[in-house]
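User: We ran a pulldown and think these components assemble together. Before we commit to crystallization trials, I'd like a predicted model of the whole complex to look at. Sequences follow.
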Amino acid sequence: MQELIHRAKSLLESGEVSRVLGWKKGENVFDVEPAFFATAEELENFVYNGFCGANLSKYMIEASTWEGKTLVFLKPCDTYSFNQLCKEHRIDREKAYIIGVGCKGKLKAEKLGAENILDVQGAGYPDCSDTLKVTTLYGEQEVAYKDAMLERCHVCKGKEHQVYDELIGESVDTCDADRFAEVAKIEAMSPEEKFAFFQAELSKCIRCNACRNVCPACSCRKCIFDSTKFDSNQKANTTSFEEKMFHIIRAFHVAGRCTDCGECSRVCPQGIPLHLFNRKFIKDINNLYGEYQAGVDIDAKAPLTSFRTDDAEPGVGRG
Amino acid sequence: MPVNNENWKPTIVAFCCNWCSYAGADLAGSSRLAYPADVKIIKVPCSCRVNPMFILRAFEKGADGVILCGCHPGDCHYSTGNYYARRRMTLLFSMLDYLGIEEGRTRVEWVSAAEGVKFSETMNSFVEKVRTLGPSVRLGDLRCKN
Amino acid sequence: MYRIAKANLNALYAAIAASKELYLPVRSAGKTNFAAWTEGAEVDLDTLKTVRSPKDAFFPQSENLYTCDRTDGKISITPEALQEKPFVVFGMKACDVRGVAVLDKVFLSEPVDSYYAARREKGIIVSLACSRPAVSCFCQTFGIDCAAPEGDVATWMAGEYLYWLPQSEKGEALTAELAALLEETDDAAVAEEKASIAAICDRLPLKGLSLENWGAAAADKNFDSPLWEQLYKPCLACGTCTFVCPTCQCYDIKDYSTGTGVQRFRCWDSCMYSDFTMMAHGNNRTSQLQRFRQRFMHKLAYFPANNDGMFSCVGCGRCVDKCPSHLNIVKVIKAFGKEGV
Amino acid sequence: MQKIGVFVCHCGSNIAATVDVKKVVEMAAKEQGVFHAEDYPYMCSEAGQSRIAAAVKEKGLTGIVVCSCSPRMHEATFRKAAERAGINPYMVEIANIREHCSWIHKDMTEATEKAVILMRAAVAKVHLNAPLMAGESRVTKRALVIGGGIAGIQTAIDIADAGYKVDIVEKTPSIGGRMSQLDKTFPTLDCSACILTPKMVEAASHENITIHTWSEVEKVSGFVGNFTVDIRKKARYVNMDKCTGCGVCQEKCPSKKPLNEFNRGLNTRTAIYTPFAQAIPNVPVIDANSCIKLKTGKCGICEKFCQVGAIDYTQKDEIITEQYGAIVVATGFDTIKLDKYGEYAYNESKDVITSLELERIMNAAGPTKGHLERLSDGKAPKEIVFIQCVGSRCSDDRGKPYCSKICCMYTAKHAMLIRDKYPDTNVTVFYIDVRTPGKNFDEFYRRAVEDYGVHYIKGQVGKVMPQADGSLLVQGVDLLDNKQILKKADMVVLATAIEPNPDVRKIATMLTASIDTNNFLTEAHPKLRPVESPTAGVFLSGVCQGPKDIPETVAQAGAAAVKVIGLLAKDKLKTNPCTAKSDELLCNGCSQCANVCPYGAITYEEKLINDHGIRRTSRVAVVNGALCQGCGACTVTCPSGAMDLQGFSNRQILAEVDAICR
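Assistant: Here's a predicted model for the assembly, 1468 residues in total across the polymer chains.
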């Protein structure tokens, strides 16, 4: 971590970058917040540890409009989002100096019983340990690092940065599950089971828009759910429909653009597994139109803005 | 939720592209090829004009089935529109299936201007299917049903 | 003081639900939120904080105001019926009960919001002491004692019993209705529980959180502070903090087209949203900094300025737990407290 | 807020017999924003239209809904009527209560209910309609004709005579097409070449006509009035400017094996060849697949003998790009493959031939120099059996469902010519029906039967069996006598179905013109616009649109020419105003819309945006209204809803959805 701070300071001092976009210490070990640092003193609060799950790519949209370059720290999975945003002309590659940081898997404080945590040891970077020692208001406990990881880290796309100016720090492969297993499990359910499952999950939705606002693919200046263009700015939470409409359409709008960064599921206050929507589309796209990973190749044709004349017909495989 | 009420009439929205399917529907009309009056056609310039939002909106407001008809792949008046529509609808329908919405409620059919018979047959079979499924409840907004 | 065996709670719920609507924390799809009680519902009194606050019971996220209908060329307007059936909100925590007091200031002052007022009249609050306060809790800062919650009835969980103390006329009436299930007892167990809670509260990391530099006087003082510029940056402009908050009271009024007319409804809105109070000329707050500032200035300066010093934050800490960017009101309070203005 | 007038048409009894039009009027009057509702027997009539004008004037209407026949029929009529009444033509919407309602439903209650809903949807849409102004685009005063057969030649000559430039693109080495392969023509028995050659010469020598033979259309972009076309001029390996057409090269060419396409493969030609004597241009091409020099590098005999040095083995395909205002498709036909008709033994016996092959055999320039002889042994056939409807009027998927139209007549012609020239040869024709609806056609057929003794048998042939002695045994049925027939024949001629030239699919795709299930190009309207394709600026000439004989082809060719002339005579065209439009306040500049635009109509600009007082410079999409054709692909790709389609906006379509579902 000191290496990162050191490097950031020298880039700031040399004037190569005008600011640093990274993570800042919070009140507690786990409430790390994304932050811009303008000076070396501010960088004293810089932190990089197992709780730095936040994907900083999206902040580069605004940073691209500012004078000078921004040094941005990107984890391997964040770089996909960065690339995708470059592809969509939302961020300016020239305005970013990217330090690709190693990743050993990121943690979900909730899995450690976040509300009672006073301290966590073993989540530091680069020296994270296999076991986390968690001090809570009500005693101490040990939790395996793996058991506290974000869902997305178990299905990690790999620790290779897709875009960077320099790399600092090592990574550890954390992938130990099939990325599409959850989707496949739902696909195998009966329509009634599927409906019951999603109905239970989506009825928790409070329309807070955290999933949308954190999503690097949801980069619209004005979301259609906020604009009057479709009469879709209802904000209502009265029935079972609005949430479905919102999540289906959101998934559809990011289909072929979603890098599966998992931020939506990370931030949902109600713990709705929102990645299951996006990943369903990714699975379908891979199966029907060939493997496609958004954010790898800036020049690749996106699956929903291209076609083959012998594409599958809608409803293929239906009973 | 199949209903026993034989008087129940489904609400069916059919999006038809101007160049092929709408003309196909016209041909079905001028050939006096009957299909249920439950089907109401909305003209769009091309199947690629149909936003998934339109389809969800139809269900929200109480449609029991939504069908999209366009030119046969390769015959699109705008050359490529139905290819995009095909991918979009494939994904959308797959998502609706995934959410447990009965799959018979959505369909895409390619109907040319010369296929009045196909248009009529398609609508007959689609309406029949939706009738067996009964009123749509999984995607509707209760507010407009009271 | 009364008590009922925990094992017997279901009978209590059933008894309440027999004549009233009953809302209480129910666990569903992995999260606990207030919901209507039904036979077989997974009631969860152990989770300290429901994701959303129980303010829905009095101020629902969406509610119909009236319905206009145009049939055969004639327009009819039907106002939504006011709450008539009495209902019980069971298991509200001390902070959430205070949250209702904040809402009262808004909705019960002139002009009185009749929909809210009806719910307040019909609603009976059965509060529950917090046996395990959490690190994000700072209700003490607002003078709330989570060991002795307000409410029509206060309850405590201790040992194998739920202890029950009516604190108002409504509470006495409810207690009378449930007399068959409740047994009289002394205060000993509750006193012990209170002491235990107090001991935990003493160890809470936010115990000493000071509201120095806040309050009515802060309205002008803090407005132009350069601190906002630093604080707001990570804000995603989502509405999580607003929608989990027990005191946020902003709403939007919209029309839902039913085809033959509209249902005019109101729904929670968030001052963090870019389309909040959108008008023909645009928004009156044009940047996220302004929106961010508004939320905290409202809770900590404007609201006390207009309501005899009452803050519109109750220290429940939900926003602290749920902010996707780990921004929160505590960081804001501290930033101004530490550095002054 | 619109003031809407609803006009319900009875269409005589077409609508009124099934839909209670009074009820529709009554319900319309109750709709929000409807200030006027009335019905009339024929809304499209002068009187009907003037009622619209009167109501507009009297009630100050701003929008109009006509409940009538399909908008494909009369939308233009009512838009014009609205314009005359002083309303923007795009403030009119049609509720199709005839084709989509009264004609398909029997129950009056049901049909009326549906008509009311369709009316409501149209009213809901009109509420959100906005006046649209058509833009203008320039017209390139040059036409392209694809195909150099009689259809293409006639179209080109007619257009050229009107003073406009025309290019003909022909994929074979010469213009002339199928007609040049025919010997005589029915019902007058003119020599085909004698009437065609002067036309070919006229085209070739016309100052306004440019002919690109041995060329193919490679790419088409643009739109009516402004097409840009890439033409591939295939390497001829012969310099067109130098060649005198002396023919020495063809005499000397040592590669003599390739099948002669012009003679339907009945004999061979040389690697360097002109397809037929009267070819235009009279310049040979080298068939690169057969040329020894091009394949092995050795030979070069033609180059050696060419006195003017016209041979050029280094030639490469060349792509030229031209601008056109109109395109005429005249790609003609071919006979179907007979692989699926094993029962006729076409592939087994050389003496089972198609009618087109018989044309070549009968032709003096054909493989037998015009002598009627069996291709197997050169003997004169004494018994000839003609089989009609081979692949035509076919109910299974082996052949075509349609009637090829020309077979009855050319078979009568062949039978008559044979009986005339070889009176000792017996001719028998098996037919399903004899169809002779044309001027002097039936007379012609009767002459064959009555004067020339051609033996017509109503019935189908089940099987043709080649015999060991070289003869053919034809097994058929005589439906009139109701008996099986076994007939020995020396030659069997199959009236093979015709189908559109297989290349037409590719061309139709390039032109975005639609084709029917049989690959015939679709007309804009089967009765009223039979020579126009639904794609503006694309016209149809000849058999590519449907089977027809020479006079019909020539007539249609002339009709297509007139349509082209009418188009080219305009300096400017009104463009479709129903184009996409981007809301720059919402546009993200993400480029997704441009990726799906088939017309390249979307570009991006860095623009200073004033969003309610907040100024920023942003990359935003800009639509070129002249290029945009209004498909709407971009609108769905746009996640923010910035891109919308005028005339079919998101909110308009949603309003229709809401109205239908309510």
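The longest strand of chain D covers residues 602-611. That may be worth checking against your pulldown data before setting up trials.

User: Thanks, that helps.
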